[in-house]
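Duplicate of #3305? Posting structure anyway:
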């Protein structure tokens, strides 16, 4: 979308403002409202949630001959050929050599440059759990381990033992926000979500075109006058609690949407090329929002991007490489855009997913698992390495709970704590957003520079 289109949309969203001066005045209000913010630097977290459960066991392939033979025997028709795996440098794994899936080629160079790391075998947990402890009932496990909706909630709340109403990014924003910001710290490319929902902070929804606005309400256009008149009547009758809150919500939506789109119109034209995919378009908008954070006076931003299609019960041989390629190309373009903007060390993107998938093939795909491998990307990443231990690739091992479902060796809490500490939370604040964190000895996994 061209800058003039952003300006046109934002001015309409502000209710037919007569000139850009009105929008400039709104920016002044934003600056005044946040002038007391204590942050002296800028940082952004970008969660890329892979909806459906990514078969991340095929993202990282053991390539020393003995380990590969075990992998191929277990994965059967789903095994990636050893000679096409992209070799990577590793020090923190039990395998002497490991390769990336060839569809992750766009990320291979970034990994080798040290700006990407892989975190092995992460999953929702309440406390550390070995296979023996699980089989003898000595540990608490998250409920409904292999359910999509439950595991998405567990990832996003980091509090599996109860039906939490807030997510760990929402609780983090509650802690870091002062309550006066016109625009939420939590910005979502996937609408409302539990991860970004706090007690005070809610996610602000964006589309790949910018902020969603209320259209068809410009009183200067004859066909829109009835709509504008309807909103005027709402604002004229706000004596009741419901009416007053609804009117305030409409006003916030119109004003904040106009602010966002007007800010985007002031941003630089990126020379970084993004692929023509829905996921990449979302990542482009995130990069554009990052480029104008100073106009919105947002020294901290948290983004949520969702990519669907990862529930590969069937047709996995065709679908999964395509998904990995789309993910890699979109994330690589995003990293390159942050480097172009000079903020790559201030922006960290990371993946999450419902769960990993089973070691075994069901004939045409894989079934719901538990632990999975994840990508962390950014200039602050202590990259070119794997954090944690890759699971054994044989059925019946100590890592296999049964039917090829891998027991995590790192918890979502540890993964989230590492990200949250880099973002600005102190050690004593981490357990306020991650209630189970003290059940685990290591809080910071070390994949981000302090």
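Output from current build:
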């Amino acid at each position: 979308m061209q800058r003039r289109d952003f300006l046109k949309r934002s001015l309409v969203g502000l209710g037919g403002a007569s000139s850009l001066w009105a929008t400039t005045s709104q920016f002044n209000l934003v600056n005044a409202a946040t002038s007391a913010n204590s942050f002296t630097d800028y940082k952004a977290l970008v969660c890329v949630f892979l909806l459906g459960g990514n078969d991340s066991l095929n993202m990282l392939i053991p390539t020393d001959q003995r380990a590969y033979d075990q992998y191929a025997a277990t994965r059967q028709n789903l095994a990636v050929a050893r000679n096409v795996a992209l070799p990577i440098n590793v020090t923190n794994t039990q395998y002497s050599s490991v390769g990336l899936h060839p569809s992750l080629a766009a990320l291979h160079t970034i990994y080798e440059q040290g700006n990407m790391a892989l975190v092995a075998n992460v999953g929702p947990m309440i406390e550390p759990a070995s296979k023996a402890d699980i089989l003898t009932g000595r540990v608490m496990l998250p409920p409904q381990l292999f359910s999509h909706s439950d595991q998405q909630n567990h990832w996003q709340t980091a509090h599996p033992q109860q039906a939490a109403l807030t997510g760990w990014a929402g609780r983090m924003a509650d802690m870091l926000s002062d309550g006066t910001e016109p625009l939420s710290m939590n910005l979502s490319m996937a609408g409302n979500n539990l991860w970004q929902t706090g007690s005070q902070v809610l996610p602000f929804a964006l589309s790949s075109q910018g902020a969603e606005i209320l259209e068809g309400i410009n009183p200067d256009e004859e066909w829109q006058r009835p709509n504008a008149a309807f909103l005027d009547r709402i604002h004229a009758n706000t004596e009741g609690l419901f009416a007053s809150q609804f009117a305030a919500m409409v006003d916030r939506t119109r004003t904040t949407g106009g602010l966002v789109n007007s800010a985007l119109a002031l941003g630089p034209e990126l020379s970084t090329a993004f692929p023509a995919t829905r996921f990449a378009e979302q990542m482009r908008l995130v990069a554009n929002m990052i480029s104008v954070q100073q106009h919105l006076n947002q020294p901290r931003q948290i983004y949520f991007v969702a990519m669907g299609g990862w529930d590969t019960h069937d047709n996995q041989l065709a679908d999964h490489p395509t998904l990995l390629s789309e993910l890699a190309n979109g994330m690589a373009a995003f990293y390159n855009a942050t480097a172009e903007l000079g903020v790559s060390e201030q922006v960290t993107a990371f993946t999450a997913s419902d769960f990993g998938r089973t070691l075994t093939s069901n004939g045409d795909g894989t079934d719901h698992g538990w632990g999975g491998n994840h990508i962390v990307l950014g200039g602050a990443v202590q990259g070119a390495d794997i954090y944690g231990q890759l699971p054994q690739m044989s059925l019946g091992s100590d890592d296999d709970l049964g039917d090829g479902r891998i027991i995590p060796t790192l918890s979502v809490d540890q993964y989230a704590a590492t990200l949250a500490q880099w973002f600005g939370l102190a050690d004593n604040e981490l357990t306020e957003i991650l209630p189970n964190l003290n059940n685990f000895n290591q809080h910071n996994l070390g994949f981000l520079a302090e």
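Confirmed duplicate; merging threads. The longest helix spans residues 316-341. Residues 79 and 87 are 16 Å apart (CA to CA).
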